[in-house]
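Quiz preparation item.
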C-alpha cells in the first residue's frame, strides 16, 4: 500500500504538532519530488486519540527517528526523519559519516541528508538478531560463524577508517545481512558515531556480544578473548589485521567443536 507524503498526510502523522509538521514540510520541500510511503496494514495504524486523526505508518520507530520505507521514482529507499521530541538535535553528523563511508560495502548508500532527515539505501536482508535467534542453541551455534567472520572483518575495517559506531556492542538491530548473505553485513544507525583515532568497534562487539551474550552457548575462554582485544588495542594497522584473522580462527575452531 502506498501513501503519498503530502501536506494532508503530514498533518495526520504529526497529529497537529507544529514542530513535527515543520520538520516534515522541510523534508518534503528539500526533496522536492513526489514521495510515497510504503506502508502495510500492520504499520498503518491509528493512534488511540479521541479525534482518531493521527497515524503511525513508520517502518521502525526509534528513540530519535521514524524510519519509513519510501518510493521515489519507482525505487525503494529508507527515509529516516528526526523526531521532533528527540534528544538528538541533528541527523547531519550521521549523514556525513555515511557519506564518508559511501564507497564501503558495509554501510547503506546515502543519497541526501540534512539536520532533519537522511535518505538512504533500503538494505534488504536479515537482522543479526534473527540470525542469533535461529542458531542460538548448542547444536546449531556453529552456523553463526560465517556471519561472525564477515562482521569481525567489517568492524576491523571500520576501526581502521577511524569511525567509532559506539552502539555495536549490541548489534542486534544494527547489522543487516544484505540479501540474507552471511558474507555481506551492513551496519546501520551511525547516529552516535564519531570520527576518532581511538575507535573500539571490535572490542565493543567482542565484549558486548561474544563474551556477554554468546558465552552461554559457545565454550570460549574469556581471558583469551580479552587478550586478543588488549593486543589489538596496542597494535599498529598491519598487526591489527593479523590479530583479527587470528581471532576469527580462534572463534572458528571453538565454535565448530
Ligand atoms: N538503510 C536501512 N535499510 C533497512 N533497514 C533499516 C535501514 N536503516 C534502518 N533500518 C531499520 O530501522 C531500524 C531503526 O533504524 P535506526 O536504528 O537508524 O533508527 P533509530 O531512531 O536510531 O532507532 P533506535 O532508537 O532503535 O536506535 C534499524 O534497527 C533497522 O532495523
Ligand atoms: Mg539509534
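Solution:
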Amino acid at each position: 500500500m502506498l501513501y503519498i507524503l503530502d501536506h494532508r498526510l503530514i498533518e495526520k502523522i504529526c497529529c497537529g504538532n507544529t514542530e513535527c509538521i515543520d520538520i516534515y514540510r522541510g523534508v518534503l520541500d528539500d526533496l522536492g519530488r513526489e514521495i510515497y510511503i510504503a506502508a502495510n496494514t500492520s504499520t498503518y495504524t491509528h493512534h488511540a486519540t479521541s479525534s482518531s486523526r493521527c497515524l503511525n505508518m513508520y517502518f521502525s520507530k526509534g528513540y530519535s527517528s521514524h524510519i519509513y520505507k519510501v518510493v521515489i521514482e519507482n525505487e525503494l529507499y529508507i527515509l529516516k526523519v528526526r523526531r521532533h521530541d528527540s534528544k538528538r538535535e541533528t541527523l547531519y553528523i550521521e549523514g556525513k559519516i555515511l557519506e564518508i563511508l559511501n564507497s564501503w560495502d558495509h554501510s547503506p548508500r546515502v543519497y541526501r541528508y540534512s539536520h532533519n532527515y537522511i535518505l538512504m539505501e533500503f538494505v534488504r536482508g536479515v537482522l543479526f538478531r534473527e540470525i542469533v535467534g535461529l542458531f542460538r542453541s548448542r547444536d546449531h551455534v556453529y552456523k553463526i560463524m560465517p556471519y561472525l567472520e564477515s562482521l569481525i572483518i567489517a568492524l576491523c575495517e571500520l576501526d581502521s577508517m577511524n569511525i567509532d559506531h559506539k552502539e555495536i556492542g549490541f548489534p542486534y538491530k544494527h547489522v543487516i545481512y544484505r540479501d540474507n548473505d552471511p558474507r555481506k553485513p551492513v551496519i546501520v544507525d551511525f547516529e552516535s558515531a564519531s570520527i576518532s583515532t581511538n575507535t573500539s568497534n571490535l572490542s565493543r562487539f567482542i565484549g558486548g556480544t561474544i563474551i556477554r551474550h554468546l558465552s552461554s552457548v559457545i565454550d570460549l575462554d574469556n581471558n583469551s578473548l580479552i587478550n586478543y582485544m588488549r593486543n589489538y588495542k596496542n597494535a599498529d594497522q598491519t598487526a591489527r589485521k593479523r590479530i583479527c584473522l587470528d581471532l576469527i580462527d580462534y572463534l572458528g575452531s571453538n565454535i565448530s567443536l
